[in-house]
Structures are given as structure tokens and as C-alpha cells.
From TrEMBL:
It comes from Mola mola. The lineage of its organism: Eukaryota, Metazoa, Chordata, Craniata, Vertebrata. Residues 142-233 form the c-SKI SMAD4-binding domain. Keywords: Nucleus, Repressor, Transcription, Transcription regulation. This is c-SKI SMAD4-binding domain-containing protein. Its main location: nucleus.
Amino acid sequence: MESMPGQLRDAGRDASSSPSSKQDAQGFSGPGSLKPNQVSETSLYGVPIVSLVIDGKERLCLAQISNTLLKNYSYNEIHNRRVALGITCVQCTPVQLELLRRAGAMPISSRRCGMITKREAERLCKSFLGAHTPPKLPENFAFDVCHDCAWGCRGSFIPARYNSSRAKCIKCSFCNMYFSPNKFIFHSHRTTESKYLQPDAANFNSWRRHLKLTDTQSDDINHAWEDVKAMFNGGSRKRTLPMSTVTVFIYIDVHVSP
């Protein structure tokens, strides 16, 4: 992965000189109209990442991101974080996978590759690498949120109060009590219009999946909500203690026969 920029340039020359590649893609292109299977290169946190146009959207190679920007994190950590953030991977076709191989984003032995949008890639990387800094919002701003666990509930998520994972930053619209996000999804009120829904394996770490905005919002509000959800999501890894500081006590119970 360290020779990625050179691989990208070589792949660009190979793709432009191959007759079959001209039929499959347009080669590396700069900004402009997006064409199906168009291969480009974009910068993510200062690292060049291969992008591919799929269904009219520019998508980035998740495997390449995992092997470069997120190389210090395990597959399970990245997968669980992606699911928690609601990011869905689009699997590329065999033709698209070959284009990614030629571009140096995937090894020759690869069998499949998941693709995510650049915005999703930024959210994912920020949850691991970015500081827990709240997005810039008006001082008294609050998100109108709801969940459908049990009888469901509505409330106001106040970003200014969200300074830790256990902060009581959601005010219930029915009883005016404050809850942390992971407790709010277990709080519900029965109304004449509500229907009981069995919680879908709700747990204290799944509030990002169950909590949602009540109404359709602008892109800016949606992006701010995504940024808030990415905060305090376990991005900082626990440091392992050096062996010299770990003391192991072994107790041996010896029974002596008379």
C-alpha cells in the first residue's frame, strides 16, 4: 500500500493502453460529468484513494481505506463501526473489481470489494481518527428525534449537552425528563396512536441504529446529525499495559495425604 500513488499512475497508463479497458471504463478522470465505471483518484485525510462511479455516485474502495487510513484497527472494529453509523456497502461487479485491481486499489487475489460514498468514508474515518468536537450549530439548537422501540418515544437531542457517551442530552417530549442516548431507546410512552413493537435486539450500544430524526431535514442538518452520532463511538483504542506492569498471582493448593 505504500506504493499506492505509483500503482495508480501505472494502472492509469495500462488502462488507457488496453482495448478492453477502454470499453469498461473511461480511465482516470478529473472533475466533471460522472460516467459509469469511471475510475478516479480522490484525497481522503491526505491519502489518495481510488474512486469508481457506481449507479451515478462516486464511491470509494472500503478495503483500500481499511488498509491505509484505518490499518491500526481490526476488521471487526471497522465493520461494527460501519454498521453503527448506518453505512451500507455496495458490492462491485466482476468488471468493476478488475478496474480496481488495475488501479492498484485491490490485490489480484481479491474476490470482492465493498464501495461507500466519499461522505460515508469521511464519517467512518472521522469516527476513528477525528477528535470528538461537536459540529458547529446554533447555541440552542436541538434535533427532533424519535425511536420505535416498545411503544416508541419522541424527544429533543441537545448537542450542547452531549459531552460524553453517558450525557443526559435528550429531553423526552412527554415527561420532560432527560436521558442519555443509550437509555432513551429504552424509554417509551404509550399513547392512543402508538403501536407496540418488539425491540429489535436493542442494547445500550445500538442507539445510533434506533434513534432517528422525526422529519425530513436539509442535507446540512442530516450531515450534522451524522457527525453527532459519530462522536464518542469508541474511536480511541484502549492502550494495553506493558508486560512489566502486569503482575500475575498464582495460588497453589497443596493437599498432603496423611
